[in-house]
Amino acid sequence: MGKLDIKVDENGYYGEFGGAYIPELLHPNIEELKSQYLKIIAQPDFQEEFKALLKDYVGRPTPLYLAKKLSEKYGAKIYLKREDLAHTGAHKINNAIGQALLAKRLGKKKIIAETGAGQHGVATATACALLGLDCVVFMGEKDIDRQRPNVERMRILGAEVRPASSGSKTLKDATNEAMRHWINNPNDTHYIIGSVVGPHPYPDMVTKFQAVISEEIMQQLQEQEGKNAPDYVVACVGGGSNAAGAFYHYLNNEKVKLVAVEAAGHGIDSGETAATTAKGSSGVLHGSKTLLMQSEDGQVTEPYSISAGLDYPGIGPLHAYLYASKRAQFEYVTDDEAMQACVELSKLEGIIPAVETGHALAALNNLKFEKGEVVVLNLSGRGDKDLQTYINYGNY
Amino acid sequence: METINMADMQNRIENVFQDKNKEKLTIYFTAGYPRLNDTTTILQALDEADVDIIEIGIPYSDPLADGPTIQETSMKALANGMNIQKLFEQLKDLRTITQKPVFLMGYCNNVLKYGTEAFCQKCEEVGVDGLILPDMPMNEYQIQFKPYFEKYNLKNVFLITPKTSEERIRTIDDQNGGFIYMVSSSATTGGSWEDSPERLAYLQRIKSMNLTTPQMVGFGIADYSALQLVNQYTDGAIVGSAFLRNLNPENLQSSIKQFVENIRTPK
Ligand SMILES: Cc1ncc(COP(=O)(O)O)c(C=O)c1O
């Protein structure tokens, strides 16, 4: 591997992945965002407001916790980056607040978002309540039935939850519906995408808002370990935003092994999986060229995972690039393995994680550590929202 | 062989736009809807009817620019078993059925997955004149697609909207496309048509630009008055959702004949 230089280029590409494959109807909105986002993010008053909210409202920095029993079990020093302790219970709030602040500076009064499990929807509804913005969240009809508590949370926060009844009625269709709504309401509306997916500049913008995770890890490791880089960073990948945030400041440090964990569902070859890098191929999904799961004929196929947050047929273009270039190692974890790891963490460390995060935890079994190696695992969310899934699993 | 085909295509498209007095009509339909094997029947009926250009939609699982009608016909067509291989098979005798210009409309992923060159080659082979890929941006066209479009004599159709800048429209006009697809308003397909002042201003503005590429207006056109209005300012109208809503599976031919007669008749 030569000297690493992983970053988005001016056309929004990471290697061959990325770009903005959007209908002309969205061109003005995307152009506006593309020409403004870096400038706005760099403004001192933006940074000041964003950082203050992350600190006093979200509760950052989130702790970096050395999990002693987990470390003993796996024979390495395992640190948990506690995004589960962020307000609303997951990393999603970092991006929601960042984009909501940006939307205000673009003069937008209305926010739309898509959500699968409801975590990004709740985070966006929260940011909108805080900042006085109208909020409509698109959610697949199937997911509305599966994720009632989060639907009600969004409503309590003042958001409208709009059922996406097209296609397969899940996250991918909620994303389509949000984009169509944006086409029909281009002037006063900003679309807060929930992961590092979508047309350029979304993947880069969301990565930048989530990069606070690895920025904190560097400082916290320096304090606790006397060095700012671990041997491994491990994170689960749905669209890839928590992983992008946890990897960001280490992307070009080749000594740090990056491990991205996808949901294998019932098994990679079961036909019921969300393991995009294992089963997908190159194509265009939601406005960017990336890896996605599709039929021979180029129709997007429906993924499957026990965890709604990983149940997405693609991954962000950054991750497609990390996979293709072998910069990151990809691991696949089944429903059962993830649930076992969730229960294990609950019993060992007294932390009930989100089922998404359970996938990252289970991947520890697939890695061979040298004694004394330092591992940072991004604990992307807490398990409150998944109580019913735990109950259905039953094995605790 | 190749040059003959190219000349045919040039003629097919140019012939349509030669007669400036006639109101021109493009009809869109989704391949594989209402039934898998209706494609050639619909093509025959459109050939017999007073229709100038035919647009065949490739059904796609995630049609971002389309409203409810085309989403539904696409889902139905996919459920019927439609796919690109089948479509090309159904189109193998296209040029014995009709001499009207035929464009395929689909999304980038359909083409990329098939292989851009293989797709373009197949289009030329069956006699397709051009492609409309609403999610293909201009810069990607120039880099990835244009060489193959040119090699296989396919015209590309770019979309413009009321918000597209004059500079961008001029660039699109320079691309030697089959026509410019003027999206009637900032909306997905199948919405309603109102003769708003903004809409008139848009039509007037584009007319006054004196573009060299013909323009056709689509999205939401459903009756004679809209057809007639856009023909005053541009080179024609494109009708999709309204056509699909009026298809009668029990009697395709007569429902198509009737629809085209209706939309061509002043009320
Ligand atoms: C707790 C948690 N982790 C991970 C994810 C997956 O998203 P991403 O890959 O963008 O981090 C989600 C998505 O809802 C989530 O709620």
What does this structure look like?
The complex is a heterodimer of chains A (396) and B (267). Chain A is α/β, with parallel strands linked by helices and 396 residues long. Chain A folds into 2 domains: 19-54 and 92-206, Rossmann fold (3-Layer(aba) Sandwich); 59-90 and 210-393, Rossmann fold (3-Layer(aba) Sandwich). Chain A is built from 16 helices and 14 strands. In chain A, helix 9 (202-210) packs across helix 11 (241-247). Chain A is globular. The model of chain A has no long low-confidence stretch (mean pLDDT 96). Chain B is α/β, with parallel strands linked by helices and 267 residues long. Chain B contains 13 helices and 9 strands. Chain B has helices at 2-18, 39-48, 68-79, 84-90, 94-97, 108-114, 116-126, 138-151, 166-173, 197-208, 224-233, 241-245, 252-264, and strands at 25-30, 53-57, 102-105, 130-132, 155-156, 158-160, 180-183, 215-218, 237-239. In chain B, the strands form 2 sheets. Chain B has a 6-stranded parallel beta sheet with strand order 5-4-3-2-1-9. Chain B has a 3-stranded parallel beta sheet with strand order 6-7-8, covered by helices on one side. Chain B starts with a helix and ends with a helix. The mean pLDDT of chain B is 93. The chains are: A alpha/beta (396), B alpha/beta (267). At the A-B interface, helix 8 and strand 11 of A face helix 3, helix 6 and strand 6 of B. Bound molecules: pyridoxal-5'-phosphate. Pyridoxal-5'-phosphate is lined by residues 90, 117, 119-120, 195, 236-243, 309-310, 354, 356-357, 380-381 of chain A. Chain A: InterPro entries: Trp_synth_b_CS, Trp_synth_beta, Trp_synth_beta/beta-like, TrpB-like_PALP, TrpB-like_PALP_sf. Chain A: It comes from Marivirga lumbricoides. Chain A: It catalyses: (1S,2R)-1-C-(indol-3-yl)glycerol 3-phosphate + L-serine = D-glyceraldehyde 3-phosphate + L-tryptophan + H2O. Chain A: Pathway: Amino-acid biosynthesis; L-tryptophan biosynthesis; L-tryptophan from chorismate: step 5/5. Chain A: Its EC number is 4.2.1.20. Chain B: Keywords: Amino-acid biosynthesis, Aromatic amino acid biosynthesis, Lyase, Tryptophan biosynthesis.
